[in-house]
Amino acid sequence: MTFTRETDHGTPPAIATGKSVTLTIDGAQVTMPEGTSIMRAASLTGCSIPKLCATDNVESFGSCRLCLVEVEGRAGYPASCTTPVADGMIVRTQTERLKQLRRGVMELYISDHPLDCLTCPANGDCELQEQAGAVGLREVRYGYDGATNMGQAKDQSNPYFDFDPSKCIVCSRCVRACDEVQGTFALTIEGRGFDSKVSPSQGQDFLSSECVSCGACVQACPTATLTEKKVVEIGTPDRAVVTTCAYCGVGCTFRAEMRGEELVRMVPWKEGKANRGHSCVKGRFAWGYAQHQDRILKPMIRSSVTEPWREVSWDEAIAYTASEFRRIQAQYGARSVGGITSSRCTNEETFLVQKLIRQGFGNNNVDTCARVCHSPTGYGLKTTFGTSAGTQDFDSVMKSDVILVIGANPTDGHPVFGSRMKQRLRQGAKLIVIDPRRIDLVKSPHIEAAHHLPLRPGTNVAMMTALAHVIVTEKLYDEAFIRERCDWDEFEDWAAFVSQPSRSPEAVEPLTGVKAQDARAAARLYATGGNGAIYYGLGVTEHSQGSSTVMAIANLAMATGNVGREGVGVNPLRGQNNVQGSCDMGSFPHEFSGYRHVSDDAVRGLFERKWGVTLDAEPGLRIPNMLDAATEGSFKGLFIQGEDILQSDPNTHHVAAGLAAMECVVVQDLFLNETANYAHIFLPGSTFLEKDGTFTNAERRIQMVRKVMAPLNGYADWEIVQLVAQAVGLDWSYTHPSEIMDEIAELTPTFAGVHYARLEAEGSLQWPANEAAPHGTPTMHIDGFVRGKGKFVVTDYVPTDEKTGPRFPLLLTTGRILSHYNVGAQTRRTANTAWHPEDRLEIHPADAENRGIKDGDWVALRSRAGETALRALITERVAPGVVYTTFHHPDTQANVITTDYSDWATNCPEYKVTAVQVALSNGPSHWQEGYAEHSRLSRRIVPLEAAE
Amino acid sequence: MKRVYVSRDMASVALGADEIARTLAQAGCDVVRTGSRGLFSIEPLVEVEMPEGRIGYGPVGAADVGKILDGTHPHRLGDVGALPFFASQQRFTFARCGITDPLSLEDYAAHGGWRGLDAARAAAPQQVVDIVKASGLRGRGGAGFPTGIKWQTVLDAPDGPRFIVCNADEGDSGTFADRMLMEGDPYCLIEGMAIAAHAVGASRGYIYIRSEYPFAIDTMRAAIDRAAGRIAPFVIEVRAGAGAYVCGEETALLDSIEGKRGQVRAKPPLPALKGLFGKPTVINNVLSLAAVPFILAEGAQAYADVGFGRSRGTMPVQLAGNVKHGGLYEVGFGITLGELVNDIGGGTESGRPVRAVQVGGPLGAYFPPSMFHLPFDYEAFAQAGGLIGHAGITVFDDTADMAQMARFAMEFCAVESCGKCTPCRIGSTRGVEVMDRIIAARDAAPVAAEGAAGGYLGEALHSRAPSRIDTGIEAQTALLRDLCDTMKFGSLCALGGFTPYPVLSALDHFPEDFGAPAPIEQAAE
Known about the structure:
The complex is a heterodimer.
Chain A: E1 20-25, E2 28-33, H1 38-44, E3 70-71, E4 90-92, H2 96-110, H3 127-135, E5 161-163, H4 173-182, E6 187-190, E7 197-200, H5 216-220, E8 226-228, H6 229-234, E9 239-244, E10 253-259, E11 262-268, H7 281-285, E12 300-301, E13 309-311, H8 314-332, E14 337-341, H9 347-361, E15 366-368, H10 375-384, E16 402-406, H11 410-413, H12 415-426, E17 430-434, E18 443-444, E19 447-448, E20 451-453, H13 460-473, H14 479-485, H15 488-499, H16 505-512, H17 516-528, E21 532-536, H18 538-541, H19 546-559, E22 569-572, H20 579-584, E23 591-592, E24 596-597, H21 601-611, H22 623-632, E25 637-641, H23 645-648, H24 652-660, E26 664-669, E27 681-684, E28 693-696, E29 701-705, H25 717-727, H26 737-747, H27 756-762, E30 764-766, E31 810-815, E32 840-843, H28 845-850, E33 858-862, E34 867-874, E35 882-886, E36 914-920, H29 926-938, E37 941-942
Parallel strand pairs in A: 1-4, 13-37, 14-15, 14-25, 16-17, 16-21, 17-20, 21-22, 25-26, 26-27, 31-35, 32-34
Antiparallel strand pairs in A: 1-2, 3-4, 5-8, 6-7, 9-10, 10-11, 12-13, 12-27, 18-19, 23-24, 28-29, 29-30, 31-36, 32-35, 33-34, 33-36
Chain B: E1 3-7, H1 10-14, H2 17-26, E2 30-34, E3 46-50, E4 53-57, H3 65-69, E5 76-79, H4 84-87, H5 105-110, H6 115-121, H7 125-135, H8 147-156, E6 163-168, H9 177-184, H10 186-200, E7 204-209, H11 214-231, E8 235-240, H12 250-257, E9 281-285, H13 286-298, H14 300-304, E10 307-308, E11 311-312, E12 314-321, E13 327-332, H15 337-344, E14 354-359, E15 366-367, H16 378-383, E16 392-397, H17 402-416, H18 422-425, H19 427-442, H20 455-460, H21 473-490, H22 494-498, H23 500-509
Parallel strand pairs in B: 1-2, 6-7, 6-9, 7-8, 12-16
Antiparallel strand pairs in B: 1-3, 3-4, 4-5, 10-11, 12-13, 14-15, 14-16
Helix pairs in contact in B: 6-10, 6-13, 7-8, 7-10, 9-10, 9-11, 10-11, 10-13, 17-19, 17-23, 19-21, 21-23
């Protein structure tokens, strides 16, 4: 793809009314949906009307006055952006009179704009420049000695973009993008008339303002006023490749805009169905880790983790890997080794890793990070609905009337979807938030939750059952839906269960801490407020009753008939870019791709015939089981692709002990992560920019990842896995990831219609995509549940064993922050640290005061599992008795604190509830200092001789 | 005890009415504070209740109280209403102003108040709208859009809440009719709004009053309190402006009420369909709404019988500036400009010849005496390149520098521009600069052309700096005309769009002030 800007029709599509009108534009008769602007209609028919303040991701504004047109029978010259088409209208967009007016306007613009085009970073990519050319401006008769807004200081505070107000034409596109697209309302126009200026917050600089650096303003800016620093540094791009972001499960698609092999900027792709042209600070800007000096580009091995690393050739590393695994299997048995697939790698790569384990190592010891995040989603939704995935696409939220968010913080964790949700809320949808913390959605500009139920961590099941109690006892359920779509007997059993007085909001109020009247009001709103949609995150799953809560959510949706159409549904907000995909691809020890059990002979036979081996019918080990087995001495070799279990998995001490007990740990990653401190073989990985493949986002959408530059380490990750497979004797010969996808399609009914040619043609596909659904499945369970009848499951509340007491009187819950991603391996190696240089402990003022803690003090955080230290942030965002921190920084290692309690059904760790004590401290703990030293020693590297 | 009447109008108070009222009270009089009669050359005015009627004295001061009370003051005017200035008026809207106690509900009812509302409430909404349509009433804020048609649009809007908004952000220089009415007869406006509410089904109304009118704000609030029961269930709230002229533009006004930055909205959508808080909204000027009680009480025909051409009814004309008898003169459309300025206004205060009058506020055109034959009529003024606007007439004598007046128009626009649209935001500032060059050139002190543009780049690339501009009168005048064209046809609202009226009319009618060697042809647009 060569570089062309995406077409900008000037104004968004009209709100569909089903009616259309016919009019004449420059002599051509055109038919357009009612409500379309003249500008958009003209653009769609190929004639371009000059414009500056109009751009099609925000509402029309009518300020620049370049887009004036003539409409027969109407006085004056209406702005085409704000004038809707009408039947029989005769529009002229190019006349001598219009030229004269447009030139007059442009002459005014240029009279207050620098003439340094040749040295301007937007030279050649500037709408003002382009429009000045388009209207034929040849002189500025006002001269340049009059009043001016030029010569103002640049604001370079944001690490990713500069704000040069001297170049601003006050079109307000940035302000409107911040308001309408992002919903942060960080920008405004300050002053009046000629003195009107764009201002972040209250005249602050960008960095210290409320700006969340989503980039919408930079994207909207038609001049060089808001420009990516990379464009300033490198120049304008010369080609663009559409690819998919490698951060969270929203799965934003971007145009990677390149100059040669150099990435200039990532610009959200307007055609992208997941993000609709929007982005967040991570995907838009925080990709510098891909070229970070910390990246390991040469394979390394060592015989013991106390030794320094030794750089070796790829041949040696691959051969050593194969020989070690074969040695261990010979010595300790076939099941003594396993692997972990990566939720950050592509579907194809994930598929290959599990194939390597099953086909090459002959066991099912494969697991993935979903174990520690959304495995309860898989279990719960499969049990109730019949499939392990969310029911909707993201667009669905725009048709919701009531949005229930539980255990999720979309504006931080899934910011681009969070902005979509906020758009809908500003349109009038009602919001219910169930979360121990007062997350931003509870109250932010032009958004306020109808109900915030600040429950105590660990009481989700009691809470959801109490809501069900209200819905059932007040007869707010949808009997027709239940009778038609669900098992009525099971419903009756469930209804009898939830109706017990002990399940009522009043009865559980002492447990949950949520006022019964609030719970009742929220339940009534969800049941009766129109289309009700539930969005949830790890605050639901990462509990000892994670699977129960997922099923309780499903019960609620079924009972109210909120499944099977747009605007409703049960929607897990999945954490990592491809965690949905890694689960789909058969990463779990008990399932092949498409969630089919390994004990199913027919399914296993299919794979055996294709792969030419006999496969193990016994489910393999889950990650915690592997670690347990390692400490017991029966598990000795682990192949880990793109995951840092030491930092991300609970109870760090236990993870470390397990890893230390193994004889061969292979880490395939971009960086020497924390797990690599315990590794023997390091295989340098490639970034998403360096390979082809697909990611599947939280809405089951399979999207293309496209290689925009050669792998710095020499190989894409799928090639490395193939090399290992070949070294252990497998006859793999994939020449391109598309061939891997063909194999997936052949072996997986829900993916039967997924091929690269189809993906190229459709842009993306939501599985199931097969003969029954050739264009994919945006909304699931439309005509019936996948499992047949929807299943109501009784979810009895069982309090977690993790309890507060005199030693550990506070409850710790953990989460993420906007600027960082997961363990921070990527984002810590970007300028995102400007916003969040360290993890902090959020603590309520009352709890802080009791302990003599002031804001910013170092505090020791202790649980029965371990201790760490970090600085305190005093805030009423958390309730008294609850503390909160993020786990982005290995210096803090929040998971030293978390315990090994886990979900009863899936072993998903109980990250969200840990009893802790907090006390003042002098700085990092003894353990932290020791760990830092251990990491330093473990990361020593002996370079390959004569490598340079 | 003697009953005396003294105006509490802001203008009267500015001239000392409060002190007179105090002195009269100390002298044992029963002082009734009224609105202003509207002729400021006789203010402060005291009217004494006598068996033969109210006898006026004015202008008077506090020291004159003795002579007023014993009837010997030389400024005895007799029956004020019989003075030619008042006798020749057709006071439909201002019938009570200056006569009644503005906050007395009894006075209001006794002088014909509430008859319009009662008549309206006895009729169906559509009938009320039809009556307003039949009256021919047009928007008195300046645009002249038929009020009944606007109401019809709101009445026909889909079900749901709707609002009545009264634009009392009277910002035009030389205008004061809105203020006079709100201070002198607030129930008239309240009644008009209540009729509008009944006609379109609104339950809530807002009056947006400029902050420079504290008396009007207080009076309206007090009146709303007292009339609340009479207009219920309709509720009215007063919102004070924050000093921006552009908030008199209806959509900027709506934004301001909503708590936003007062910035003009693009139309469509029309406020009638998507106005305040996105709901269908009747937004009318004070004078439009205040004309409605008369129409409902006396019938559409009584109103429509007066007027000229398509301009029906009366217009409260405001005479100001350098004029002998400044004040409010309500009269049917069709009276000529000359009659208003010379016969009613009595020519200039300075006694020098009238050089120009500006009609319609700071965005209205300047007319020379040669155009005094123009009838006061929306269409006639539009045809002559001007506008009636809010019917403010500002008189200038022959010492006025019309180039400076053109510059002032641009400066006014620059100061008051909201900054949204480019022609107004940048154009008005450039307009001031162009006028400065014209005036400088006219005054035979040519500006030395500056060198390169400022800034490091300008210096570094001096040879590539923009070419010097032609600062001569002809080039700058041509540029001024082009700029006016861009502003007039390109601006988003009337502020930028009408600024060319005073500029071009000054240029066309008084070219000599712009250094033109000979009078140029009248602009033929």
